Task: structure prediction
Amino acid sequence: MSEAAIALVKLIDSGALTLNAPMDKTAILAMQDASALAPLIGEGAPQIWCPFYPWAKSLSQNFTKALSETLPLSQKADCIIVLPSKQKDETAYMIAAALSSLNEGGEMIVGAANDAGGNRLKNTIESFGGDVLDTHAKNKCKIITVQCTADALKHDTIHAALAQAALQPILDGAFISQIGLYGWDKVDIGSALLAQVMDNDLHGLGADFGCGYGFLTRAILNANPKIRALYAIDAEKRAVDLLRQNVVGHDSVLHPVWDDLSAPDRLPKNLDFVVMNPPFHSGKSTESSLGRQFIATAHMSLKRYGRLFMVANTHLPYERTLDELFHKHHIMAQAHGYKVLYAEK
Result:
């Protein structure tokens, strides 16, 4: 749970901070685990932008409908709570989008941990012409209250930040992506290795776990014409929404799915194969727990004798989990600090 969200709730509960609008006139933009705000929302219906599935699910019971919103918001709000990403450019984008989405005289509340960008929030806000009313230090976080005055805003700077984070071509126009997605403007080295060495006789029903903007999804479908259905699953809604643009010519076969593969709600079953490059970061540390959860989810989704192809950093000990769950497994290739693993259920 986000320390900034907890700090914000504590400030409101103590009376040190007041929300100046009802929930139906409020919006929440979150790229943190903002579940601490759920009691504040109650039965209210704020606009919500939180494209990461597990955080969205914990924030609102009606998240699948609420998250149809894009940025800037289609309906302006009187109060916007912003819990931004750790990424500097994405944080600027979220703040610029919030300022563009406020009614005249509206209030923005921005919060982040000091070691996750909190110490630079004030400078970012002021660079857009935001009028900082108050700054609170709580739980090693900064919570900043800002008033929106149209005449004071630096609209050119705001528009530049929005444009920088908009959908844009990458890799010489081969794909469309945007700031905020993991590895948004490059091909992951591990994914490239996996695409190079995985079998090209895949058929039937399959899935790309953690598909991102669609590099592996496209490679799988282009190389395997006998696939009848491919479920491309990712926890990042923006990535899932890009798949139809990035994987063309396979509309009847491609099935984009927004879900959390560590605790899935819509997991396809009886699959013939799964391909995946699981995440391995939690905060600033590298760990294998997420990859182990992905392996367990793949095992659940595969039918008997179904095949798993995955890539991972060489030092991550996924073989133990494969030993426990799969009939057999081996290393298909190793290069550039990565290994491609094959397993059969």
Q: What stands out?
A: Residues 180-344 form a domain with the Rossmann fold fold (CATH 3.40.50.150).
